[in-house]
């Protein structure tokens, strides 16, 4: 590459003396115009690919097709230098626009238009157009009316005010579909900034320099005399190819130091250098985020001494998610853990395999330590202090050791330099193979506790949850004396991890310890412990106090805890109300990292109440927010919720997709709760397709007690579904045993709908008029429990039972009531089942008929044809429809004769033709749906 005078952030732009191009600077905007080009432009290093992308953008603008090119990078990696070079090389009019110091609404757009406009009045008119219906694209078009192409270089988009960023995004999205546009947008932003979705936009990401590129930069930084070889090697090694860091490190050295006559600072890339490069980024972060970055960096250093971080500075870190809707306050962890997910979402930290996260830019971790508050600087000093037994949450009394005044007994300065350099290098560099300072091993219990806390949080959010449980319990023990609030939160997070993993004993271990847990937290812990050990009177007393408190002063985290307590008590209406309130508060406070948890809890509460449409809305939004923040375990549970909702609707493909996504994460991460829900959804879909035997086999493990069974909080809730399926599959003995155990559980009164569902189970297992009695009893009990969907299921089962006993007149009333409820609940699969049964009684179904099917097929024959087309055997169809296999065979022969086909192999094509005809007519066929989901906590 032909090199020009360097132009890097912090180094400054040094135009070549031979430059004749006219540059006018006004405020924060530099307008570059004129057609005369210098012989040399700003010099760049290792940026051939980026310059090629700029050339493509310029060519599109010149051809009238415009476009957007995003350039992202970490501080000091050369975003501004690339924009300067692009403006220099562009053949038309180029404008570079930086973020104004004042960031009021529309301030950046106002500055842009002030420079584009020929007069102030024209700029004001364009601004009015941009703020109105015309949008920013029209405002720019009104000013850039010439025939030549225009390049607008927008620097530091992340520092623009929100109004201006929104206007830019809207303009880019609008012009993305237009081909007549002579404006090219070259936009730089910090790597952690989330860029808008723009059709056709290209993104280039700046990175570190190669060894040759770094040497070329070092040579240009030392134009008078090249540095002595040992000095140059050390600078290049410690800067690790970072152009801004290398520039700042060289700038602070004197000529004798560069020549090797005087010693260099140890390390050469020290706090001063990092503060110069990264100080602006860190200062713009909230104080809590800065402290948490420092915590992660401390844990990384501790990990190099054996606490589990990898050599590149990876630490286990994250925030609770584990999934499930554990009632725990972990969702509500009061600790400073919540901003951690925001740092992941912003890209300042990156989640890695197993839930661990680390710094993509390890210099950021060192800079966070250097620029943190005074107590954190004390903790950093403690890493190098002898003994380090005073605790990292208290500043060291002595000044920090330096190269000139090492701490007594501390590791040699060369070792400290090696440890710092290792944190800043990737594993291909020599510094990574150097051992950590021995003094790092002398971390205080608080430092080790916080390191374990972030490890556990990482696994809870996106790794094995029982690993999270162990790390969080260790953190609670280490923190209990010096940081009791964090220790309390660590215990609740450990309980949540155990809950997601389906381990009752581990839940109790987390709940039972810890004198630091007090007040409503103590009530919650005691109440949940009592519920898990079936001391229900004690549980009700303690949890009722938590529900009555409703989280105190509208704190969304504590509201989630109160809502979870309501679910344990079986009050689904109150639980849904409290969780909805928590969601509103989280949104009002912009608690992005808390939203997935709030939405997950709300989705489960709505499921418990039988409101599946609302549950699906919450789960879909929760899935989006969980994926956006990297909370993969939460995402698995939201997929499981959506699978259950899809099984109610009768959408088999959606069940398979969401259940598969849930199980994909649940298996390796030990999410027993998510796996149970996903398997339940698959079984219900199979039952809806008439595959009763297959569905029963899938459900057997879910209702089995013990470690090889399903989740302890869901086992009894699955039993009604299992009883119905097992009876259809001819497994009556197993169904009877499960129903008897369910009767014991229902008597405890922890689920308002349990007695009604127990009566339905007994009706399915009884014979003769005993069945009629239990169906009527089930309907009566449903009337007082408030779950309309479960009542409609019982009415459907009762109407079906009456029809099959040749009492069609009696059957129509229950079937009509069931149909209306299913339609209101958008439970399309169940509604279709009810319509089919109602048609079989000779009554009007009140819904769309299968007009695409041949009119000479009876409703029963249509149902048999559809089930067989979906792969059901004669025995499975008989089980599903309560017929004998001989009767199914008789009907099937009639179907073949009337359709003019010879075997069941031809049925799928015929049924697909029916469905295609119905879609063309505006209808939609769905198969009957299985049992709706329930959720404990």
UniProtKB/TrEMBL annotation:
Q: GO terms for molecular function, please?
A: DNA binding
Q: Give the span(s) annotated as Disordered.
A: 384-431, 835-857, 915-937
HTH luxR-type domain: from which residue to which, for each copy?
850-917
GO biological process terms, semicolon-separated: regulation of DNA-templated transcription
Q: Where is the composition biased (Low complexity)?
A: 394-422
Top-level taxon of the source organism: Bacteria
Which keywords appear in this protein's UniProt record, sorted alphabetically? Answer: DNA-binding
Report what the protein is called.
Answer: HTH luxR-type domain-containing protein
- UniProt organism field: Streptomyces venezuelae (strain ATCC 10712 / CBS 650.69 / DSM 40230 / JCM 4526 / NBRC 13096 / PD 04745)
Q: What is the lineage of its organism?
A: Bacteria, Bacillati, Actinomycetota, Actinomycetes, Kitasatosporales
């Amino acid at each position: 590459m032909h090199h020009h005078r360097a132009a890097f952030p912090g180094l400054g732009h040094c135009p070549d003396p031979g430059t004749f191009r006219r540059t006018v600077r006004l405020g924060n905007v530099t307008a570059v115009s004129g057609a005369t080009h210098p012989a040399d432009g700003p010099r760049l290093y290792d940026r051939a690919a980026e310059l090629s992308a700029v050339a493509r953008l310029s060519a599109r603008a010149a051809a009238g097709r415009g476009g957007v090119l995003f350039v992202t990078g970490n501080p000091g990696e050369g975003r501004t230098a690339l924009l300067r070079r692009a403006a220099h090389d562009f053949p038309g009019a180029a404008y570079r626009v930086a973020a104004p110091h004042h960031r009021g609404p529309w301030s950046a757009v106002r500055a842009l238009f002030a420079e584009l406009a020929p007069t102030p009045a024209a700029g004001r008119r364009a601004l009015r157009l941009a703020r109105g219906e015309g949008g920013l694209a029209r405002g720019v078009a009104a000013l850039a009316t010439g025939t030549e192409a225009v390049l607008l270089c927008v620097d530091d988009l992340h520092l623009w005010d929100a109004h201006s960023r929104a206007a830019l995004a809207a303009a880019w999205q609008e012009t993305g579909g237009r081909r007549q546009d002579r404006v090219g947008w070259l936009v730089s932003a910090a790597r952690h900034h989330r860029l808008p979705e723009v059709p056709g936009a290209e993104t280039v990401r700046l990175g570190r320099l190669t060894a040759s590129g770094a040497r070329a930069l070092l040579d240009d930084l030392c134009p008078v005399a090249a540095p002595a070889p040992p000095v140059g090697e050390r600078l290049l090694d410690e800067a690790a190819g970072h152009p801004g860091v290398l520039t700042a490190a060289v700038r602070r050295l004197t000529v004798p130091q560069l020549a090797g006559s005087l010693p260099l600072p140890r390390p050469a890339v020290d706090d001063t250098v990092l503060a110069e490069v990264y100080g602006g980024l860190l200062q713009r972060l909230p104080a809590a985020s800065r402290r948490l970055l420092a915590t992660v960096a401390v844990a990384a250093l501790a990990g190099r001494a054996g606490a589990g971080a990898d050599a590149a500075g990876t630490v286990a870190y994250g925030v609770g998610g584990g999934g499930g809707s554990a009632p725990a306050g972990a969702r509500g962890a009061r600790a400073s853990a919540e901003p951690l997910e925001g740092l992941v979402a912003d890209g300042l930290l990156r989640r890695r395999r197993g839930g661990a996260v680390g710094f993509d830019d390890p210099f950021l971790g060192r800079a966070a330590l250097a620029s943190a508050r005074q107590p954190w600087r004390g903790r950093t000093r403690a890493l190098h202090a002898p003994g380090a037994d005073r605790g990292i949450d208290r500043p060291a009394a002595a000044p920090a050791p330096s190269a000139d005044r090492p701490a007594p007994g501390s590791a040699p300065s060369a070792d400290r330099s090696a440890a710092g350099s290792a944190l800043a290098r990737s594993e291909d560099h020599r510094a990574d193979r150097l051992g950590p300072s021995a003094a790092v091993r002398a971390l205080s219990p608080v430092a080790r506790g916080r390191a374990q806390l972030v490890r556990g949080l990482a696994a809870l959010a996106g790794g094995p949850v029982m690993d999270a449980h162990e790390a969080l319990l260790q953190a609670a023990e280490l923190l209990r004396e010096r940081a009791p609030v964090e220790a309390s939160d660590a215990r609740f997070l450990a309980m949540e991890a155990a809950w997601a993993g389906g381990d009752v004993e581990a839940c109790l271990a987390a709940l039972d310890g810890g004198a630091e847990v007090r007040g409503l937290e103590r009530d919650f812990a005691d109440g949940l412990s009592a519920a898990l050990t079936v001391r229900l009177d004690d549980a009700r007393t303690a949890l009722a106090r938590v529900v009555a408190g409703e989280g105190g002063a509208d704190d969304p985290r504590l509201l989630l805890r109160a809502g979870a307590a309501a679910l344990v008590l079986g009050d689904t209406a109150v639980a849904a109300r409290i969780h909805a309130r928590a969601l509103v508060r989280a949104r009002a406070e912009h608690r992005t990292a808390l939203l997935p948890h709030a939405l997950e809890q709300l989705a489960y509460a709505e499921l418990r109440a039988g409101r599946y449409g609302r549950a699906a809305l919450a789960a879909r939004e929760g899935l989006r927010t969980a994926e956006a923040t990297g909370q993969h375990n939460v995402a698995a549970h939201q997929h499981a919720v959506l699978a259950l909702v899809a099984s109610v609707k009768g959408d088999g493909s959606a069940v398979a997709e969401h259940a598969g996504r849930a199980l994909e994460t649940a298996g390796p991460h030990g999410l027993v709760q998510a796996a149970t829900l996903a398997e339940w959804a698959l079984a219900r879909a199979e039952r809806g397709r008439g595959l009763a035997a297959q569905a029963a086999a899938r459900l057997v493990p879910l209702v089995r007690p013990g470690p090889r069974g399903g989740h302890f909080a869901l086992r009894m809730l699955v039993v009604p579904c299992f009883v119905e399926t097992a009876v259809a599959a001819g497994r009556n003995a197993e169904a009877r045993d499960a129903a008897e155990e369910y009767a014991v559980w229902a008597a405890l009164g922890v689920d308002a709908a349990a007695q009604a569902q127990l009566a339905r189970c007994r009706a399915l297992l009884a014979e003769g008029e005993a069945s009629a009695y239990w169906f009527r009893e089930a309907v009566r009990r449903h009337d007082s429990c408030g779950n309309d969907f479960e009542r409609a299921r019982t009415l459907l089962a009762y109407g079906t039972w009456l029809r099959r006993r040749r009492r069609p007149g009696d059957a129509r009333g229950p079937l009509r009531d069931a149909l209306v409820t299913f339609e209101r609940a958008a439970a399309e699969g169940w509604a279709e089942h009810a319509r089919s049964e109602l048609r079989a009684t000779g009554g009007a179904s009140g819904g769309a008929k299968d007009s695409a099917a041949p009119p000479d097929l009876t409703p029963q024959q249509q149902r048999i044809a559809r089930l067989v087309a979906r792969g059901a055997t004669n025995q499975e169809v008989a089980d599903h429809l309560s017929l004998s296999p001989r009767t199914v065979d008789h009907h099937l022969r009639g179907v073949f004769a009337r359709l003019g086909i010879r075997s069941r192999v031809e049925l799928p094509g015929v049924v697909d033709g029916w469905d295609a005809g119905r879609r063309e007519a505006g209808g939609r066929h769905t198969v009957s749906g299985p049992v709706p989901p329930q959720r404990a906590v």
